[in-house]
């Protein structure tokens, strides 16, 4: 298994002060350690077993590298801690994710009261399309459809993002963005690792032919 220093592509995209390059280097180190600990290079391991262990090692490395700040990394580390083949990373806390309570403020309370008063003046949405069109001035069907699509996509996001079922809408959107960016870094690191292994394998085969 190669070390993190032999993958030059990770150096691009960030300096020593931080950024995506530094995150990818740390992710690569954690991934290599997890793969070595899981013994995925063993010839006795089957294809499906190796695939499962690589996935768990990659997720554990991602959660450990991202840290315990986002909810999804804590939830992912807690899920991985249940499997003996992959040890939980430093981000594992076992705590359930809950949406952080908003700070109390007079401006926020006034804003919420205005929303409640404005909603009370609006007629309640009904399932009847004709009645909804009359109530909303012809746009009721579009409003009902838009709300249904939002609820459907929100439920899908809660299933995809680890720990998303316990989050509210605003927190879920932030967690989704953070999770997507982290997954992109994970894919980039794994692709670099695969290319490096393929290059090393090709060099060894060429060296054997020349001997």
TrEMBL record:
GO biological process: one example: regulation of DNA-templated transcription
Keyword vocabulary terms for this entry: Transcription, Transcription regulation
Domain IBH1-like N-terminal: 23-82
Region Disordered, residue ranges: 1-21, 83-109
Comp. bias intervals (Low complexity): 1-10
Biased composition (Gly residues): 11-21
One family name in Pfam for this protein: IBH1_N
Record-linked InterPro entries: IBH1-like, IBH1_N
PANTHER family attached to this UniProt entry: OS02G0791300 PROTEIN (PTHR33124:SF90), TRANSCRIPTION FACTOR IBH1-LIKE 1 (PTHR33124)
Protein name, per record: IBH1-like N-terminal domain-containing protein
